Amino acid sequence: MLGLTKGLKYTLKNLTKQNVTTKYPDAPLELPDRFRGIQKFYPEKCIVCNQCAAICPTECIQLTGKKHPDPAKKGKIIDTYDINFEICILCDLCTEVCPTEAIVMTNNFELAEYSRDELFKDMRWLDENDANIRKENKV
Amino acid sequence: MIEHLLQSPPGWIHFLIFFCLGAILLAIVLGFVTYAILAERKVLGFMQIRIGPNRIGGRFGLLQTVADVFKLLIKEDIIPKLADRPLFILAPILAFAPSFLVLAVMPFSENVKFADIGVGLLYYIAVSGISAIGMLLGGWASNNKYSLLGGMRSAAQMISYEIPLVMSVIGVILFTGSLNLTDIVEGQKHVAYMFLSPIGFIVFFISSLAELSRTPFDLPEAESELVAGYHVEYSGFRWAFFMLAEYVYLFAMASLMTVLFLGGWNPIPFLGFIPGVIWFALKFSLIVFIMIWIRGTFPRIRADQLMEFAWKVLLPLALLNIFVSAAVKELFLK
After folding, report:
1. With an 8 Å Cβ cutoff, are B50 and A15 in contact?
2. Mind telling me how many Å the CA of A6 is from chain B's nearest CA?
3. Cβ contact (<8 Å) for B293 and A12?
4. Into which CATH architecture does domain A35-137 fall?
5. ipTM > 0.85?
6. pLDDT tens figures, B73-105
7. In a designed cystine with B91, which of B138, B200, B205, B238 is the match (CB 3.0 to 4.6 A)?
8. Residue ending a domain, choose from B57, B74, B91
């Protein structure tokens, strides 16, 4: 009998408590800063070292470089950079390995699309994906 | 006014008046059912620290139930091939009709009442018993062993709990000396019968929960365990009728409890300036809230505890209540 009243008291108290649910689809969901979300890419920082493509466990990164337009300078600059989010597992290895922090993680996670083709993101899209970047990687 | 209507000669004009009155009551009851379901989901949501319906009809989900019912009404009407067709169609009607019929004797205030018959309480109990047949019929006509079992279980539960339910009101009848619901309310001018026969009130409340097959006695349906009980084979508007019957019974049972134990439209002392209908609505809402609260709190009892509880706990308590009530009447109300 005492247990019953205890339960009733508990549920009555819950009426006034703050809800644990979020208003997610209506309001954006705040995620912790170390969350591994969709990558942001900085084309001007990239040195075309290919390490990200090499370390990627699912081989979802494809990139090509070209000669530096200024003949006086050495090295290459990035030409195309694509990530296939159909197979990307957001494991954070590409951003760990990048020596110039040209690719970093953001807190964005919404990858639902109507077509699989739309999950193939190119350099321009990845460059424009500049919201909610990890704090330690912010320029 | 009703008294005058009841004694006037029959005719089309009177038929029309009665029809309109019935339609108005039905509209009120349907409105109650719509918002009782929403209130139930909202309160349960808040008790479980979430929001509940909040999409359709503004941020309080005011049109959620309307949308749900609309969906049920436009669903395909499925009748199993091997079902007993006439009975299958009859069962939801037989389950729903008595739940609305019982409201005819319910006095909502001094003026708002329909049939003021002498044996109102008896009428209520007798007519509400018919619903069990509707459920059993639904289970039988579906030609499905699970729905038949579900129907048997809910009929067994209904009948078992009807006995303590009826026994517990005998105390009230003793105090009033009448089965008329208006007289019963008039008898509570000074003190509500809830305080004169607390045991009766508790037994009545518990067995009414079982009669309505609400948690913790919702074994006939048991959302999380069974497929659906007696209405496994029902869908669309026929299923909606079973659900409607359940919620109209909630309305009727909460009204009856208000009338029998909480003093109906009688105000709390010194607050007599508030009209009777509002007092009735307040007491009524309190009971509905407590029922939702209990649903949000208690787990379902086991099937073997169900019958034992009715026959070995509630029935003796109800019998004890008769003796105690008689003693109270003899000692204090003479």
Report:
1. no
2. 10
3. yes
4. 2-Layer Sandwich (3.30)
5. no
6. 999 988 999 999 999 999 999 999 999 999 999
7. B138
8. B74
